Amino acid sequence: MTKTASPREMTRRQLLSGTVAASASFAIGTGFIAAPDAAWALEVTHLKPETMATLVRMARDIYPHDQVGDEYYVIAVRGYDSAEMAEMVEAGISALDAAAQGRGHASYLDVGWERDRVDILRAMEESHFFQTVRGGLVTGLYNQKAVWPIFGYEGESFSEGGYLDRGFNDINWL
Predict the structure, then answer these.
(1) Residue 44 C-alpha from the chain's centroid
(2) Which is the most buried residue in 15, 53, 94, 123, by most CB within 10 A?
(3) Within 13 Å of residue 97, how many CA atoms lie on the same side as its CB?
(4) Considering just the CA atoms, what is the radius of gyration of the chain in Å?
């Protein structure tokens, strides 16, 4: 017989994992955002939780990779939750939501089809907000060592003897 821990004996991680797994909807609390279908949760300090959730969706729409989990996108946009960036990001997300509302949706997060979200992003791709987020995502997402194996990148090769002795001639499609 397995003993189940009482709520007072549970760790915070056990409590959160059980709560998130049992929750059936997207939960947004004071300064905290979590999704039951994602392996991430994030505490925000300068942005509204809805803004951060929209920023994560926007990041996924700009650089879509089905094999990359939301937690990597969260890490990539975490830097926008700062006092210096908050005003610009909140205004940009408001403009994004307004563009979605102009197309008959409640907000950008409520746009169900990726193609429709991409059309909204294309309409604002010349804006300072979009260019700032897109530019920051290049390094924010692809500079994460945990993401490299997903794309088949083995990392720097100098410490392993260089690429000539480590994978330079291993292409099998020629």
Answers:
(1) 13
(2) 53
(3) 16
(4) 20
Paired strand residues for 41: 34
Domain parsing of the chain, residue ranges: 52-153
CB atoms within 10 A of CB 173: 3
Query: Token pair for residue 126?
Result: 């010349």
Cα 148 from Cα 31, distance rounded (Å): 30
Using 50, 70 and 90 to split pLDDT, how confident is the model at 31? very low
Place of tokens 């994004």: 96
Phi, psi dihedral angles at 19 (to 5 degrees): -70, -45
Q: Could you tell me what percentage of the chain is helix, strand and coil, using 3-state DSSP and rounding each to the nearest 5?
A: 50, 5, 45
Residue 75: C-alpha distances to residues 54, 71, 89, 128 (Å): 14, 6, 16, 21
d(C-alpha 104, C-alpha 115), whole Å: 15
Over residues 77-123, the pLDDT tens digits come to 999 999 999 999 999 999 999 999 999 999 999 999 999 999 999 99
How many angstroms separate the CA atoms of 44 and 27, rounded? 14
CB 39 within 8 A of CB 99: no
DSSP 55: H
